[in-house]
């Protein structure tokens, strides 16, 4: 956990320097809250301020690769009640080696203790074209795209969720029930 001084330095860096840098991107807006709201209420604030047809959630620890967004938008254009997650490649934390998931499609699942896991798709459920989308019982919570109106029809997130880790289950279960 950062010290009070580290938090102060970070807070200073996220004010004017961030605003100056983001001014280079006129379509990006910075939203600020008066107090720390936590992950879910902050995501809800961003979604409520969004004006586009699609809302994309991308956690700060995620890095988007080249052309990662068009396939997501394509799937939503075909069916607005689709929530789409990109393939999740990995950058090794020890040596920063990039490990692609291409051709090794995984889907979200959870164990009896409700821990999120990525498991291989069984051969009998794999499609001939590995780029074809597949259904997953649970999606990753930190990176996905969704039709903005569908997100709100689902009820958005429960603002009572206080900590990271349950949002992927909540939105996945809502989508399954209301679809």
TrEMBL record:
Pfam families named in the record: Glycos_transf_2 (PF00535)
Name listed for the protein in its UniProt record: Glycosyltransferase 2-like domain-containing protein
UniProt GO MF annotations: polypeptide N-acetylgalactosaminyltransferase activity
Keywords: Disulfide bond
A GO-annotated cellular component: Golgi apparatus
Gene3D superfamilies: Spore Coat Polysaccharide Biosynthesis Protein SpsA, Chain A
Membrane-spanning ranges: none
A biological process from GO: protein O-linked glycosylation
InterPro entries recorded: Glyco_trans_2-like (IPR001173), Nucleotide-diphossugar_trans (IPR029044)
Glycosyltransferase 2-like domain mapped to chain residues: 14-150
